[in-house]
Design goal:
GO terms for molecular function: 3',5'-cyclic-AMP phosphodiesterase activity; 3',5'-cyclic-GMP phosphodiesterase activity. By secondary structure, the protein is α/β, with parallel strands linked by helices. It is about 25% helix and about 25% strand. The chain has a single domain, classed as Ribonuclease Z/Hydroxyacylglutathione hydrolase-like (Metallo-beta-lactamase, Chain A, 4-Layer Sandwich), CATH 3.60.15. The structure holds zinc ion (ZN) (2 copies).
């Protein structure tokens, strides 16, 4: 599997864009950054979007991608996959005909540019060639992380989460883990309140894994604290830990 980082920041500043991870050109994990970095042809290759939760920094690329496809008069349907809660939030609060058109009915209700596909939780399902498992994580809104597997290679993406349990039990053998660390360790109070991790909290989470993956890719940092988080993670001396940067590509 090829992993391309479109955005991996917990905020938006020049050079720091919100979460989106493209797998093999066609499967997108979260959609915080899409059209700002992908060419037209690259955007048209997206078949499926797996959404972890309804927060704006993880979904905001979806309505604009849909608009790009419709304006280009392409007959394409992108499958937007998430829990029923997340899909309901997209329909009620984002593409509701007020904030943005309902692209599940455009250009026609029969052949729309977006289709919402509810996913099961804690039970694997197929998306094209991939086996996907969604597991709940700890965040102020309903949220899941995803394990995506193909040909014996698995990637686990936590999405946004505070300290959590179940997803670590289901992790299994991983080629890579994408896990969030949003705040430095002295901001644990706000991290816990908002369902996020610090370097110290990450250390406790990783101890729940029976075996550390060879790659532990850190995402969702608040850019204002980037240097402090980087130093604190280095001090943990965990093998395989790497801070993600937008544009990074990994062959897993
Ligand atoms: Zn969030
Ligand atoms: Zn977020």
């Amino acid at each position: 599997m090829r992993l391309r980082v479109l955005g991996c920041s917990g905020a938006e500043f020049p050079g720091h864009s919100p979460s989106a991870f493209l797998i093999d050109d066609s499967l997108l994990l979260d959609a915080g950054t899409v059209g700002a970095v992908l060419s037209e042809d690259e955007q048209w290759r997206i078949d499926d979007i797996l959404v972890t939760h309804s927060h704006l920094d993880h979904i905001r690329g979806i309505p604009l991608l849909a608009d790009n496809i419709v304006v280009s008069r392409l007959s394409r349907t992108v499958q937007v996959r998430g829990t029923t809660e997340v899909l309901a939030a997209l329909g009620t609060h984002l593409m509701n005909g007020v904030i943005w058109p309902d692209f599940t009915r455009i250009p026609t209700p029969e052949a729309p540019v977006l289709r919402y596909q509810p996913i099961p939780v804690d039970k694997s399902f197929a998306v094209g060639d991939y086996e996907v498992l969604a597991s709940p994580v700890n965040h102020p809104v309903p949220a899941v992380g995803y394990r995506v597997s193909r040909g014996g290679t698995s990637l686990l993406y936590t999405g946004d989460t505070g300290p959590t349990e179940r997803i670590w039990e289901l992790a299994g053998e991983l080629a890579a883990l994408i896990v969030e660390v949003s705040f430095p360790s002295d901001m644990a109070e706000i991290a816990l309140l908002t369902g996020h991790l610090t370097p110290m909290l990450l250390g406790k989470e990783l101890a729940k894994l029976p075996k550390l993956p060879p790659r532990i890719l850190i995402t969702h940092l608040k850019p204002q604290y980037y240097d402090r988080i980087e130093a604190e993670l280095a001090a943990l001396r965990l093998p395989g830990v790497e801070l993600l940067r937008g544009g990074n590509v990994y062959d897993l």
